[in-house]
Design brief:
The complex is a heterodimer of chains A (236) and B (245). Chain A is of the alpha/beta class and 236 residues long. Chain A has helices at 46-54, 87-94, 100-109, 125-138, 155-171, 183-189, 218-230, and strands at 3-13, 19-30, 35-39, 61-65, 72-75, 143-147, 175-180, 192-196, 203-208. Chain A is globular. Chain B is an all-alpha fold and 245 residues long. Chain B has helices at residues 2-21, 29-42, 44-76, 78-93, 96-107, 111-135, 139-147, 152-190, 195-205, 208-237, 239-243. In chain B, helix 3 (44-76) packs parallel to helix 6 (111-135). Chain B is globular, with a radius of gyration of 22 Å. The chains are: A alpha/beta (236), B mainly alpha (245). The A-B interface holds A 54-56, 71-74, 76, 78, 80, 82-85, 93-94, 119, 121-122, 135, 139, 145 and B 140-141, 143-144, 146-150, 154, 158-159, 162, 165, 240-241, 243-245.
């Protein structure tokens, strides 16, 4: 499913009553099944943009066109699991129609088989993030929204989870928005990279990556990074 | 074991005090027990306990349902909070006796008046507790339910209600003890049956064994309901908390 976003302006009024423009002229489009990665400095308004795209924040000027009735799966910055439900119950709450044939491979891919009956309070952050991922995929989304799903995980764990996300994204056609401040995440996962400016934020560069995710070895990754460096984007 | 020891200490203290004060003022346990047995044999004890219990149950359910609904509304809707707050403060500070007397004057010495008066006494504390609980609801979880398009009633049942459970439990706990205390006053003042009525009769006849017989069986009933009903429910509601690391 296609997504077209043109946010003319998003203004916040903070507690002191000052108005602050967070997004200005923020435009992009994604084709069906594409993974769009948004890279930008922290605090530039990436999460604000995601909230507008999924419809949580109606208070903005502009237009978001996404097909009506499209199913959304979202991984928030924090896992946002219900602490009184087990891992499996958390997933089943949002995806009541999901049967064992769907859940079993999903839990398998994410290494959650052994944790199905655990409560979120018993999980590490890395595991809780995986549960949030499982929940987002269990609804068989048309749009997948990932808000820094790998933040504050150690490198090895982040790399493994990144691989798991890549596997899941390629397992079905799902238009994906991934927000990150890591160029590594971007070059490993994205089909189309969007580089963002400081506040008020907008897209300052759009870089498509043509090599399929599965074929990006160390050499290809290095090549893409070199290309980004040439465009003076790698350090944003 | 500790409970038994504690109970034995209570009996011993009672017996000792009875010995010092004399049978007239404080009859020893066997005399009170005899009164209990006599009342139980005639069936009066069970009748009065049953009547009181029914009043407690009705008033409690009424006040909890209404109080929880109003509290949730006031916690969610600013306008409702501002409209309801003065009433809430008035009700919170209105003495129970005033409510009971006025209810009997306006609605007559009826069952409806008694139950309504008890419920009104408990209502404001339930509202306040649930309002506070509603204010602490996690907006992040609401957003999660929203994005995943969980149907409204399902989100209420599985996302909202579990967050309110501790507040519902607290309101039920404090409310129940309030109802236990007030029901006897309401019965004393305007009902022809129930434990409160019997205690009133015993007071007028200066029948201390009878008075203690009803008071203590009533206390025992409260204790049984607390340990057999209220505590297990609380434990069940918070089972995910204790298992959390």
């Amino acid at each position: 499913m296609q997504l077209e976003v043109s946010i003319a302006s998003k203004v916040y009024t903070n507690a002191a009553g000052e108005r602050q423009e967070v997004l200005a002229g923020f435009n992009f489009a994604l084709r069906e099944g594409e993974v769009g990665v948004f890279v930008g400095p922290s605090g530039c308004g990436k999460s604000t943009m995601l909230r507008i795209v999924v419809g949580l924040d109606p208070d903005y000027q502009g237009r978001v066109s996404r097909p009506p009735g499209a199913k959304i799966g979202m991984v928030f910055q924090e896992p946002r699991l219900l602490p009184w439900r087990s891992v499996e119950e958390n997933v089943r709450l949002v995806a009541p129609q999901a049967d064992e044939a769907r859940l079993s491979p999903l839990f398998g891919t994410l290494g959650l088989e052994a944790h199905r009956s655990h409560f979120p309070g018993e999980l590490s952050l890395g595991l809780a993030r995986r549960v949030a991922l499982a929940r987002a995929f269990a609804v068989e989304p048309d749009f997948l929204i990932l808000d820094e799903p790998l933040a504050s995980l150690d490198d090895a764990l982040a790399a493994r989870l990144r691989g798991e996300i890549a596997t899941l994204v390629d397992s079905r056609t799902v238009t994906t928005l991934l927000v990150t401040h890591s160029v590594d995440d971007a070059v490993h996962l994205g089909d189309r990279l969007f580089f963002l400016s400081q506040r008020p934020s907008r897209v300052i560069a759009e870089v498509p990556i043509h090599t399929p995710r599965g074929e990006r070895g160390p050499a290809e990754i290095k090549g893409i990074k070199a290309e980004l460096a040439r465009l003076k984007l790698a350090n944003l | 074991m500790l409970r038994l020891l504690s109970f034995a200490a209570f009996l011993a203290t009672w017996w000792g005090a009875a010995f010092l004060a004399g049978d007239q003022k404080l009859p020893p346990p066997p005399i009170v027990l005899a009164a209990v047995v006599a009342e139980a044999k005639s069936g009066a004890l069970f009748f009065h306990l049953g009547v009181t219990l029914a009043r407690v149950a009705l008033a409690f359910i009424l006040a909890m349902t209404l109080g929880a609904a109003l509290g949730y509304l006031m916690g969610r809707v600013r306008l409702a909070d501002r409209l309801g707050d003065p009433w809430l403060i008035l009700l919170l500070h209105l003495p129970a006796l005033v409510v009971i007397v006025l209810a009997y004057i306006w609605a007559g010495l009826t069952e409806v008046a008694a139950i309504a008066a008890i419920a009104i006494n408990k209502l404001p504390t339930a509202v306040v507790t649930l309002r506070e609980g509603t204010r602490t609801l996690d907006a992040a979880l609401d957003e999660m339910a929203d994005v995943f398009a969980i149907p409204r009633w399902k989100a209420f049942r599985h996302v909202i209600l579990p967050q309110l459970a501790p507040y519902l439990a607290a309101a039920a706990r404090s409310g129940l003890s309030l109802v236990w205390k007030i029901v006897l006053v309401a019965e004393l003042l305007g009902r022809p049956n129930g434990v409160g009525f019997e205690i009133g009769v015993a007071f007028q006849l200066f029948d201390i064994p009878l008075l203690l017989a009803y008071s203590l069986t009533f206390a025992a009933l409260v204790l049984i309901i607390e340990t057999a009903l209220v505590q297990p429910i609380e434990a069940r509601l918070s089972r995910w908390r204790r298992r959390a690391a």
